[in-house]
Description:
Layout (H helix, E strand, L loop, with lengths): L7 H7 L2 H12 L10 E2 L6 E2 L3 E7 L4 H14 L3 E6 L3 H9 L5 E4 L5 H7 L8 E16 L7 E3 H8 L9 H6 L11 E5 L4 H13 L18 E3 L1 H10 L4 E6 H7 L2 E2 L1 E3 L10 H9 L2 E3 L6 E3 L13 E9 L8 H11 L2 H4 L12 H11 L4
Parallel strand pairs: 3-4, 3-5, 7-12, 8-9, 8-10
Antiparallel strand pairs: 1-2, 5-15, 6-10, 6-11, 6-15, 13-14
Amino acid sequence: MQHRPIRRQRLYGVAAATVVGALCLTACGRGGASDARPSETRNSRIDCAETGKIAGSGSTAQQNAMKHWMREYETACPGVQIRYAPIGSGGGVAQFLRGATAFGGTDTPLSEEEFEYSRDVCPGSTAIDLPMVGGPVAIGYNIDGVDRLVLDASTVARIFDSEITKWNDPEIQRLNPGVRLPATEITAVHRSDDSGTTQNLNAYLAEAASKDWPYEKQKAWQAKGGHSAAGSDGVVSTMLTTDGSIGYFELSFAEAEGLSTVRLDTGAPEPVVVSAQTASAGIAAAEVSGNGNDVTLKFDYRTKAPGAYPIVLVTYEIVCAGGTPSDVLPALRSFLTYTASEEGQKDLARIHYAPLPPNVAARVRQVVSTLS
Length: 372
């Protein structure tokens, strides 16, 4: 961070438009909704706030889940308006710490430095991480004539670091006996923006292929060569028009565009297919950590458990434990209670996300109820 964040009270009053335009004007104006009371809607089990405007931004990993949640919630709770800008985890954290949004979406927990900065936007309190949706980071490819591809952590690392440059490289062929691989040049596509998806891929490669991946677990891309694109949708768009390409993104993007995905050789008896179910197996084994009301998960990227996909992420919603403006708080609590509820989590697998383990979801709902 290069600048200390501006206090939330000031930005809510005068400067939001310069940060996120109409998005933040929707959420940041004080509109007399401080007396909003939850009321059960007739056609839903969602416990609605009567009115409110909420702005959020950040992770593209949760973009499709957020679209689903916003549609379902606003249908049941027409008095509340929600806007979410999928600008990447780095942007979402930065906007939240400037007081421009009521919540930020990030695929990695806040750093200690970011926690300290949050004291300026959470008067008398700090921000906390709330895990909300899980999913696999799929490695997709577009190779003419190839509809099945197995890679391991080492080959993935060397491909993205420009050490393996052709698809018929002996190391790739070894993992794919019987598959005719062309001599096509590999075009590796990575994120140009700071991204929690990138950080999770970095974390996987740093642990599972430490000899081949000397880079830190950061949101910024560090490896050599390749092509870059903004957002997961940008990576997918580049790959769709590039034969011989490989990239990484959330599974929902691959499914939406019909991109083939890599099976990972993890050392398990069979290569692991990426799916919501195999990601859930990885998330369920995660260690729950964090201090106080901060809830974070720690993954085992080197798992060899059958059917457990190792490149998983959880998107966290960053909120103030205390100090949220009174005209935003009721709607924010209501919306986050819904997203962490059984109702909010039940359809996630259908749109290629992994629901939170029930014990984690229950903990998140309990923490949301204490937000002030």
